[in-house]
Specification:
heterodimer; A: alpha+beta; three-stranded antiparallel beta sheet; two-stranded antiparallel ribbon; 18 helices; B: 107 residues; mainly alpha; elongated
């Protein structure tokens, strides 16, 4: 992200915010941020200041809920607000011992809080994880530039794929051809956790949101002329044919230093393209085959916090359901039928696994790959 | 749902605006002859720092009791003044100290 000058991060636009933004009339600075009135001294004035008044559920409800009741009620329970998706996934691998759970709680508190997403982090300022700072003179905007908000947190994987920053790999066609911002596909409803999104236990829970077919109904089997669409029914996820090589990560170890500051060490990412069996198969996601991506879990991720924290490491694969943001019309694997059929390299196999993860991935390794069709 | 929210919002806004206007009017001194500068003094909150009193005998003495009554709600005027002034901010806002990079690799 391009840096913002230090002063600009705290500059409040007298016209656009103080005079014209309804939210400057809702309350004064102190009612939202705390601090001391009547002093010219910066240190005194800032005593007790709260940088993000929407950071906890109680204050967000008090400050925003009066006028934006439905949004606020949903948002403070959403995946973005409390990151409960991590609990859903990690807890399946935790050992039964209470110590495992305690260790995870501690690690989560230390390492996950900077990605906690309040109203302010999408509507007013840059996210805390990149140092915060006002974006447009403190105006509350329905959408701020996604390069200042979303990609502050979804940068190294989603943004690099979407805007084509991985060397040799093209950007997503929705970016190159249509310049679509994140929220053209991810609606406020979804991000606030309203409606069906309100029941999500993790990011791929429930119906795809968005679904590719929402915007491309003609790609459904039998709805158009493209043979590859018609022949496979709903056996392949769209990304199996339309996304390209994407980022896989390994072994993120988390710990704190003597001063208690959290940090992590992660192995360099690798670019992979692997098709495997659908670990999340359901009526909502009926495909047999999906794209898989390696996530940075390994049995010793949390060793700093305790022994055998991930005692049930094998409960889930390490190659996970993925929907890479680098969609192309023609891809290396869909340019002919046999670019895919009979092409063993595309499909996940034991050869792709490190010894510690062989067991965990048995359920996603295809037992047979489709034979060549001669086209 | 949306309509409902908006009408409630609009109502609240109206109410707030009204309260705001009423408060603003109430706070205004009755159409005072603007030519009399002295009338302005009392509306200003007394300086809390004592030394000023010696220079300005016309101002009310800085009694502690006056302050809370003139400013029932902490005024945010100073916040606005400073945060809308580019020059002041440029002087005061410091780029974050380059924090020691503890983490290794993409995250």
């Amino acid at each position: 992200m391009p840096p913002v000058e230090a002063w600009e991060k705290v500059y409040v636009d007298p016209e656009k915010f103080v005079q014209n933004d309804p939210h400057a009339k809702v309350a004064n600075c102190i009612q939202c941020h705390g601090g001391q009135g009547g002093s010219d001294d910066m240190a005194v004035a800032h005593k007790g200041v709260v940088t993000d008044p929407t950071a906890n559920a109680e204050s967000a409800t008090k400050l925003c809920g009066t006028c934006h009741a439905d949004i606020t009620k949903a948002q403070v329970k959403s995946l973005h607000f409390d990151s409960h998706g991590y609990d859903t996934i990690i807890s399946q691998r935790l050992g039964d011992a209470p110590a495992s759970h305690a260790a995870w709680e501690q690690a989560k508190a230390n390492h996950c809080s900077s990605c906690h997403t309040s109203c302010g982090q999408c509507h007013v300022s840059q996210p805390t994880s990149v140092g915060g700072g006002l974006i447009s003179g403190h105006q509350f905007k329905k959408v701020q530039a996604f390069t200042r908000t979303c990609t502050g947190c979804h940068g190294s994987r989603v943004n690099d794929e979407y805007t084509g920053r991985n060397e040799g790999i093209p950007a997503d066609v929705h970016w190159t051809k249509a310049g679509m911002a994140c929220f053209k596909c991810h609606t406020g409803q979804e991000l606030h956790g309203m409606g069906e999104a309100g029941n999500q236990t993790e990011r791929y829970d429930g119906k795809p949101a968005p679904a590719c077919l929402d915007c491309h109904p003609n790609a459904a089997p039998g709805q158009g002329q493209i043979m590859q669409h018609n022949i496979h029914g709903d056996k392949l996820a769209c990304q199996v044919c339309h996304s390209v090589a994407n980022k896989s990560c390994y072994s993120c170890h988390v710990q704190t230093n003597e001063k208690g500051q959290p940090f992590y060490k992660i192995e360099p990412s690798v670019i992979t393209f692997k098709i495997g069996l659908n670990p999340k198969k359901s009526a909502d996601r009926p495909w047999n085959y999906v794209v898989l991506r390696h996530v940075p879990i390994d049995p010793t991720n949390f060793d700093f916090y305790g022994k055998d924290v991930l005692a049930k490491f094998d409960a889930l694969p390490t190659w996970k359901y993925a929907t890479p943001h680098n969609i192309q019309r023609i891809t290396p694997q869909n340019k002919t039928c046999d670019a895919c059929h009979g092409n063993e390299q595309l499909f996940l196999s034991e050869k792709d696994l490190k010894p510690y993860e062989v067991k965990a991935n048995q359920s996603v390794i295809p037992t047979r790959i489709p034979p060549k069709v001669g086209q | 749902m949306l309509k409902h929210a908006i009408s409630r919002t609009a109502w609240l806004f109206g109410a707030l605006l009204l309260i705001g206007l009423l408060a603003a009017c109430a706070g205004q001194p009755a159409p005072a002859p603007t030519t009399v500068p002295v009338a302005e003094a009392p509306t200003q909150p007394p300086p809390t720092a004592a030394p000023t009193a010696t220079q300005a005998p016309t101002q009310a003495p800085p009694t502690a009791t006056l302050a809370p009554t003139t400013a029932p709600l902490s005024s945010a005027d100073n916040c606005v003044k400073c945060h809308t002034d580019q020059e002041t901010l440029q002087q005061l806002a410091k780029a974050e100290e380059p924090t020691e990079k503890l983490s290794e690799g993409e995250g």
